[in-house]
Amino acid sequence: MSSPSRPPKIHDVAKRAGVSVATVSRVFSNPDIVSEKSRKAVEKAVVETGYTLNVLGRNLRQSQVGAVLALVPNLANPFFSEILAGISEVLRDAGLNLLVLDTRQVDRDSPTHGLRNYLNRSHADGIIVLDGSLDPELFRSPACPPVVQACEWSEGVPGAKVLADNAEGARLAVQHLLDHGHRRILHLAGPRQNSLSVSRAEGVGAALSAKGLAPVATIEGAFTLRSGREAAAEVIEAAPTAVFCDNDEMAIGLMAGLTEAGLQVPEDISLVGFDNIEMAAYAPVPLTTVRQRRAVLGQEAARLLLSQRDGEQPETRVLPVELCLRRSVRAI
Amino acid sequence: MSSPSRPPKIHDVAKRAGVSVATVSRVFSNPDIVSEKSRKAVEKAVVETGYTLNVLGRNLRQSQVGAVLALVPNLANPFFSEILAGISEVLRDAGLNLLVLDTRQVDRDSPTHGLRNYLNRSHADGIIVLDGSLDPELFRSPACPPVVQACEWSEGVPGAKVLADNAEGARLAVQHLLDHGHRRILHLAGPRQNSLSVSRAEGVGAALSAKGLAPVATIEGAFTLRSGREAAAEVIEAAPTAVFCDNDEMAIGLMAGLTEAGLQVPEDISLVGFDNIEMAAYAPVPLTTVRQRRAVLGQEAARLLLSQRDGEQPETRVLPVELCLRRSVRAI
DNA sequence: AGCGTAAATGTAACCGGTTACATTCGCCAC
DNA sequence: GTGGCGAATGTAACCGGTTACATTTACGCT
Known about the structure:
2 copies of one chain form a homodimer.
Chain A: H1 10-17, H2 21-29, H3 36-49, H4 55-62, E1 67-72, H5 78-93, E2 97-102, E3 126-129, E4 147-150, E5 160-164, H6 166-179, E6 185-189, H7 195-209, E7 217-220, H8 225-230, H9 232-238, E8 242-245, H10 248-260, E9 270-275, E10 288-291, H11 294-309, E11 316-319, E12 322-324
Parallel strand pairs in A: 1-2, 1-3, 3-4, 4-5, 5-11, 6-7, 6-8, 8-9, 9-10
Antiparallel strand pairs in A: 10-12
The structure holds a DNA duplex (30 and 30 nucleotides).
């Protein structure tokens, strides 16, 4: 206790409690199989010695790391951090730590420092991928721990998937515009190859084609405020009466761009976003949008990973979305 | 290579390369001291066997974890995630992983699942604390790895600190309002005991008292959009001509609240925020604010941690801030 | 050739737990 | 008393690397 010499090891505790190291170990990992008497003795000795378990030893023996790796395209993006919060919550309850890696920050292909090095059983017990732009081949090695894709995804990655019902969300949004009499609808999309853009475009198409319509234009953005603002000129040129944006940030950016150009939302142009980020309600004009429960998405991803780790079959889970009505759409 | 039996170990590589395990190990950890010939042989054998180093074994032997823990008050808050991005960047270059823990999510005092369990050398090689509300006692145990506080802080925690020049930022902001003729200035502050609130209040006091003034009122908020909006009524009652807000989110929230109440920014009330979050430029009225470089703050925190780990003295670093002029302030 | 020194390599202990397997203990039935 | 059985415990091997220390090798110098 008072000796500052070296941290007590399991052996010291055992000696003090008058039992073997195995018994001490069992008190930690499987208390039920040790007798009341020894358990008390060990617990007392633990307190007296100030023993804390060294996780490294355990991990080595059990060949597990005690941590799950999340691969995020951009850590600074609030959209992802809320998903992370959900992941973190579930992992913590399972006694696992959360490792975070920003995929923008790593040299993707370097053999020594690249992503490949991380995808190894000795680095993490599982991986949650929030980045749909990674090479699926990375995750196919037999040394790769269980993988779950969340939110974005790419084909060819083994393992479970959890995603919001992107197509349905987009359909809902566009249907809402149609219901308000809009016919000239523009789609401000994300990057072309992005899986989110693709399925949202599907939803847009579905809603419009049911009425025999098509988007007056599709503009490719980058999911950022800036790219929304920069799209304003092109949007104005296409002269839609309403714009469906693939995320709220582009919608808010576009709102700023339109305002600067002297147009009013929703009087001149109606706007619908996607995600329902917190700021959507505080935008210059409170933004009508599709709500996607990001924390739940993260939680679900973590749960799927845990069940996959326990040997269950990977599955794909689609989370419902809902329309969130505010003031950026008006009837015409 | 083709045998799917069991992953190759260092021993297999050694045998194949015709050298000892020590030599193989040295090729990984200290290539310079092994001869060109053996090095080539080992590298060849590594490729042939498909060997990947098992980090667990190394970690155990070296008593290090290879990861740094970041303690965040709220993972979902973009403010923190940008700091995390900075931290992550520096750590990655140093070959360390980033572990993230949301302090809201953990039972602070539980002896078995609480925070205390994490603060142990075998869990992380270092800790970066972004939460100023934690009990300093937690970090005083001899088993606790090096600690750096970033952004928020509390007295009594050992180790380095890195923070923005909060007092100066607040002083700058208020001075800016004074320069524009404002005299009735209100301070929409953060939680009373928060270290940021305290030092920003100092800056506000310094600027005002130099002119023989004091805030017309100080309102305690919670750094959230909502708390900003909710403060609107109380603000209006105090009838200031300008408000300095302890962060941008409260400022944007307040802006919404004021607008709802029929007041115009900046015609009726001028507003200054703090942080310069990305959304500040896209607020209904682009927000004049104090810019704080969050990514740099994170990088600096990580660097301080690394140097502390290498035995250097902990130091306190204050990062400069600057005023970011937009349209939410007008002269009277 | 003989010697000294530095560089390269090998052997085996070690990091700190877990756990397979062996052993002991306690208790009951015959 | 003895055999049988399950529960509790102990012993020691094991996880997969690193590294102190011993040993060998290479090479320059007298």
